[in-house]
Amino acid sequence: MTGTSFLDRVLGRVSASGVREYTFHHWQEPGKPTAEAVGVLPVPGVDAERFLGRVMDVGHYLGHIDHVVESRVVADPAYAPPEAVRFYQRVKIPLVGDVHQEVAMRRLAPRQGFEIAEFHLLARETEVLSPKVAARSAYADGAWLVAPGLVAYALSSAPRREDVGFVKWKVLTTGADVAAGKVIRGNIEGMARWAAAPG
Fold it and tell me: How confident is the model at residue 94 (pLDDT cuts 50, 70, 90)?
């Protein structure tokens, strides 16, 4: 699975205990135009199963997770809910435009005190998406990690260089690195609100 080494790097930087305020880590990996990053936020009383159930409910992200324009399940027997899901997602980047991709996400065995859902880009499926609709992702690795009273969200992503002009490329790479801490915190807070809501 393509996200394994990324997840190892994330787990080397986070702890399932002792975090009292939002903490953000980012680091550069060779060959990647954007930094890898993880944010960790205390979420008192978080229910890991309910929270990760929302994470896996990709067909209902619209209206719950900021900047998501479209998110739908793609039927695929290789990714059977509730333990795995394949999905198409399009997100709007403020002042720049949309980015889209196909992604696979799986629940993993617990590690280091965290319950985990990991996702990674489906490269061939994303490559055939239309660049006229939105810029395609070049890579996307990520993970949601939940421990008692704590949620972490990790991400490493960038668009395909040929799908965007120079200015958009700088905003989506250098600009994204600058904004990552705030964006990751917003994603955690949005998912936590949704997980805590009735229904």
Answer: confident
Please give the structure tokens belonging to residue 72: 């739908």
Threshold 0.70, pTM exceeds: yes
Contact 168, 33 (CB under 8 A): no
Look at phi and psi of residue 31 and say left if phi exceeds 0, alpha if psi is from -120 to 50, else beta: left
Q: Which residues pair with residue 68 across a beta bridge?
A: 91
Amino acid at 20: R
Is residue 115 within 8 A of residue 143, CB to CB? The reply is no
Closest CA to 90 of 64, 62, 63: 62
Which residues in 153-191 are b (16+ Cβ under 10 Å) and which e?
A: bbbbbbbbeebbeeebbebbbebbbeebbebbbbbbbbb
Q: Are 193 and 185 in contact (CB under 8 A)?
A: no
Burial 86-121 (b: 16+ CB within 10 A, else e): bbbbbbebeebeebbbbbbbbbbeeeeebbbbbbbb
